Amino acid sequence: MNVPRSANQTLLILRNADVHAPAALGLNDIVIGGERILAIVPAGADLSALDAEEIDVQGGIVTPGFVDNHVHTLGGGGGLGFSSRAPEIQASQLLRAGVTTIIGMLGFDATSKSMAALVSKTKGLAEDGMSAYCLTGATLEHPVPTLTGRIRTDIAFVQEIIGVGELSISELGYGYDSLGKGAQYVAEAAVAGLLAGRLSRKAGYCCLQVPPYLKQVLKPMFDVVERTGIPITQFIPSHVNQTDSYMEDAAAWGLKGGWVDIGANYSPENNYGRSTLPHKAYVQLRHKGVAADRILISSDGNGAPPKEERGENKPKVANYMPMRALHATVRRIVLEEQVPLADALACVTSNVARATGLSHKGEIAVGKDADLLVLDAELQIVHVIARGQVFVRDGDPVRRGMFDDVLIRELS
Predict the structure, then answer these.
(1) Which terminus in the chain has less CB density within 10 A, N or C?
(2) CA separation (Å) from 73 to 192, 279, 365, 392?
(3) Could you tell me which of 110, 90, 108 has the C-alpha nearest to residue 99?
(4) pTM of this prediction?
(5) What mean pLDDT do residues 127-134 have?
(6) What's the CA gap between 112 and 78, in Å, rounded?
(7) CB atoms within 10 A of CB 56
């Protein structure tokens, strides 16, 4: 069989793959060259003319690698003192969790951490072999911190920066409803991202941090969209399952065609007593009429917000957000809620790629990036391939970042 390839290009073939692209395509062989998918052919096709390494996945489920749109690559936290700042994330943490593409952000702490450090970390993760992008800005600062001095020039001229956020719709964060100034600044930041995105062929979207425990929740953003004409898809409100009132507004947002992002780590099982279990949140949104292709799931991974405590108790412990929550949520949506695998996968693959403008990600198709997971019948991760390279084989990492082995040895 003739497969187009570059001279001296190393080939990898996945044999007997039950392909979910995320739509089910049946049993196929996948030919990978460099960082791209070169061909998808019926299983058993004669590929003997190709000088290629082969992995027979024996009918295993092959899916796109997960795209996580909300990760604190430098480490989140800091709200309980300097010791509560989470450490920088390692590529192997992400890849073992099935995450082959991430979008990182500063979050709460833009005092001890900076945009320069965030972009540097993003470049480092890409050098380690995965795909990494980031957003300009931080949660509470209005105006937001940037690398070049402006949102527009950050997005237009820095390859890794594809949007702005996560940005609170209240300039004072969780403690106050937005009194107007916050929502107005969010609109200004979103327009800057939109225009820069058009210039640089990026989404230029705005990731929102929404104060979930107060009465306004998303309501200021409905007003922003109505009064300004900014496309509703220019915003991604994060972790909508934190409270019942946020879920109500999120359903209305989704019915208007907006993206709705479920937080995989926001759960009563992870110290968030007022939240809806993420797999239950998916079902609730669908029952309210939100289309399957409007729903995203992200991790808030490597974040470390204060543990939620009620009454007069003040938080004393930072609540770490593990990367594995994304995969765990997908499994529970399918295995416990009986949602079709294609719909559940779309929330962490193709939907996210469309929402964030990463057109080469999120699907198994010829010409797309070769980011692939092999899952067993219980949807557990067996192999992970990122940009055409095998990083996890039979559940064990076979490639690591530069300092991973040192960290493991030092901490053992």
Answers:
(1) C
(2) 24, 25, 29, 20
(3) 90
(4) 0.93
(5) 96
(6) 9
(7) 12
